[in-house]
Each structure stands twice: as structure tokens, then as C-alpha cells.
Write a structure and sequence with these properties.
By secondary structure, this protein is mainly β. It contains no helices and 18 strands. The two termini are 22 Å apart.
């Protein structure tokens, strides 16, 4: 099966604000809407530090789960830090064959029930698009980023990144319906209690 998807969406990322969550840590918040003002669900917002190093996870135990339920991947969109192991339990009463041809991670979990013996380690940043060799309608998106500070927008188009240490960051936004996954709008901001006006992004994308 070849995973192909016509993509498109025009959206506005607005009201990106920073405020103190606790002493020594901040919270980054974002609101994402489309060109009609409707909230955008499952947009990923992540913060890359500019002046500090990020520690990669060291545990090989699964830190994230992508389920297979009623012939669908749940969740549709996931985001993890580079070096994270992900489990792929099959909760259906039929077998699935999960695979990806994406450059960031090529893998295949051959026909199986239950939980595979080993999780899949995602050790390169980038977008991983997954499917099932048996059920063509099944598709999922995993964005692997070189940072532990990320969040997805909810049904209201809202996202919050908690416990961000003070410092300079590059905020980026991605959505699976963007025309080009590599074109992620970004803005440099300072995570501090005295941060200035909220940063705002306007994205011009194609309709679906």
C-alpha cells in the first residue's frame, strides 16, 4: 500500500502566550484556528531551546502508545521526543500489519494480535506516516522532535506546553494537513515571567 494523502488547510495560529507556571518554569500556550476562525484539532506546537542542550530519553520502555481500535489508529496524531520507544498494541479481534516507509523511520510489525514483544524506537527526528498492509483506510502520523517540550491542540484549538525552563526558544507549529510537512512556521521567543506580548502566527495553507 502506498500512503498518499492530498493535503491542505489554511489556518491561523493566534494568541501564543507565555506565563509563569511555577518558580523556574514557564508555560507556553497556543490557540490554533483555521481561516474561518474554527479551532484546529491535533496541531502540534513544540519549543526548541536556542541556548541550552536537551537531554534525550534513555529508557527503552515504551513512553508512548499508538493503539489499533476498530481498524483505526488511536490517536491519529502523536508527537514524541527523539529517542522515544512507542508501543503498538492491537486491540481488535483481527490481525494488523503496521508499517512505515518514512525516511525518519522505516519499520514493519508483521501480522499480529495483542502487543508486540518489542516497542519501536524512534531515534531520528522527522515525520513518520504509518499504515496497515491489510486495511488501507488505516493511517496515523507521528512527529518526532528533538525536544521534550511539545503539546497538541484540543477540540478548542488550544495547546499548553508545561514546565518549560526559562530561556530562548524557537516555537514551531505543524499539522498533518499542511501542504508541506517541512515548512513549519516558527518564531523565536523568550520563556520568562517577564516575557513581552504573546507571539502570533498566521499560516496560509490550502483547503482540504
Amino acid at each position: 500500500m502506498r500512503i498518499m494523502r492530498s493535503v491542505g488547510l489554511t489556518c491561523l495560529v493566534s494568541a501564543l502566550c507565555l506565563h509563569a507556571a511555577s518558580a523556574g518554569a514557564e508555560q507556553l500556550r497556543a490557540s490554533v484556528v483555521d481561516q474561518t476562525g474554527a479551532p484546529v484539532v491535533d496541531a502540534v506546537v513544540y519549543a526548541m531551546p536556542i541556548d541550552m542542550k536537551v537531554k534525550a530519553p534513555v529508557s527503552k520502555r515504551p513512553k508512548a502508545i499508538i493503539d489499533q481500535i476498530k481498524r483505526r489508529f488511536v490517536p491519529l496524531v502523536s508527537v514524541v521526543q527523539t529517542g522515544t520507544a512507542v508501543a503498538f498494541p492491537n486491540r481488535d479481534n483481527i490481525e494488523h500489519d503496521v508499517y512505515s516507509f518514512s525516511p525518519a523511520k522505516r519499520f514493519e510489525l508483521h501480522l499480529y494480535h495483542g502487543v508486540p514483544a518489542k516497542p519501536v524506537m524512534f531515534d531520528k527526528p522527522g515525520l513518520v506516516v504509518m499504515g496497515c498492509n491489510i486495511h488501507d483506510q488505516m493511517i496515523a502520523y507521528l512527529l518526532v522532535v528533538d525536544t521534550p517540550w511539545f503539546a497538541k491542540t484540543d477540540a478548542r484549538g488550544q495547546a499548553a506546553i508545561d514546565n518549560v525552563p526559562g530561556g530562548a526558544y524557537r516555537l514551531a507549529v505543524w499539522h498533518y494537513r499542511m501542504a508541506a510537512a517541512e515548512q513549519r512556521p516558527s518564531r523565536d521567543v523568550s520563556a520568562s515571567a517577564s516575557a513581552g506580548e504573546p507571539a502570533a502566527f498566521t499560516l496560509q495553507l490550502e483547503s482540504e
